């Protein structure tokens, strides 16, 4: 299990599995099912669901649902591919719902 000793990070609200470094948080202004969501460049200790196409607010994407590797709770999704050129910067990045994580120091 990856850990982030000495650096602020976010962990799974359900089981405290470390998921992402604070410095890998790109943007807090995203929306997911339960409300606010964060965009990260990198997330660890997750399991990926199968690839699927999804129509999101900003367009159509190929995404995979991401789950906590420890407790299996659904956290958000990974952008695998964007159909809109302007959305390509999201490819390979991750959305995690704010309600599913806690900030750790
Ligand atoms: Zn968990």
UniProtKB/TrEMBL annotation:
InterPro entries: Yippee, Yippee/Mis18/Cereblon, Yippee_fam
Domain of life where this protein originates: Eukaryota
Annotated Yippee domain residues: 8-105
GO molecular-function term, one example from the UniProt record: metal ion binding
Keyword entries, A-Z: Metal-binding, Zinc
Keyword set includes Metal-binding: yes
Coiled-coil portions: none
Membership in a protein family: Belongs to the yippee family.
Protein name, per record: Protein yippee-like
Organism (species): Punica granatum
Gene encoding the protein: LOC116202514
């Amino acid at each position: 299990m990856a850990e982030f000793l000495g650096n602020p990070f976010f962990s799974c609200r359900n089981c405290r599995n470390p998921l992402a470094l604070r410095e890998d948080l790109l943007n807090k202004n995203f929306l997911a099912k339960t409300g606010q969501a964060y965009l990260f460049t990198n997330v660890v200790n997750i399991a990926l669901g199968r690839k699927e196409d999804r129509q999101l607010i900003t367009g159509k994407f190929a995404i995979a649902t991401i789950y906590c590797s420890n407790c299996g709770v659904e956290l958000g999704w990974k952008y695998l591919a964007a159909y809109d050129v302007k959305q390509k910067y999201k490819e390979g990045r991750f959305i995690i719902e704010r309600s599913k994580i806690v900030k750790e120091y």
